[in-house]
Amino acid sequence: MAEQPDDRHARPPGADDAAIAAAGKVSEAYEWIVRARGRLYDFHQLMGRADALLGEGIDALRDAGQAELAEELTRTWLGRNAIPDRWTFEIVEAFDDTYYEVATTGERRVRDEVCGGRRHVHEAEMKGDRRTAGPTDDR
Prior knowledge:
Helix content: 55-70%
Structural class: mainly alpha
Strand content: under 5%
Number of domains: 1
Number of strands: 0
Distance between the termini: 16 Å
Order of helices and strands: HHHH
Number of helices: 4
C-alpha cells in the first residue's frame, strides 16, 4: 500500500490533479528563486570580503613603500560600485523589494487558494506514489 501524505501535506477537498500539479510548478519556481536569492547574497558577501581584503592589501603596499601604487588602487578600485551607482547591498535590497517580495506573495497566494495553505502537496503525493512497503528507517 502506498504511503499517504500526513495531514499537513494532504490534498484539500475539491483540489483536482491539474490544480495541484500547477501549484507544484509554482512552488518549484519559487524554490529556484530562493536559490537565486542565496546566490545574490553570496555575491554580496564575496564582494564585501574582497573589498576588505583589498583594503588590507593596499595598507600592506603602503607599508612596503609602494605609496603611489596604494593610492592609485585606493582611487580606482577600493570601495568601487559593483554596478553603476550601486554597492551590492543596494542590489540585494532592490532585488528583495522589486522581485522577491512579489514572488513570496504570489507563491503564498497559490498555496493558500489551491492547496489550502499546505506546503508541498504535490511532492507529498509523489512520495506516497513512489514509496513501497517495507523498512522505513533508511528511507
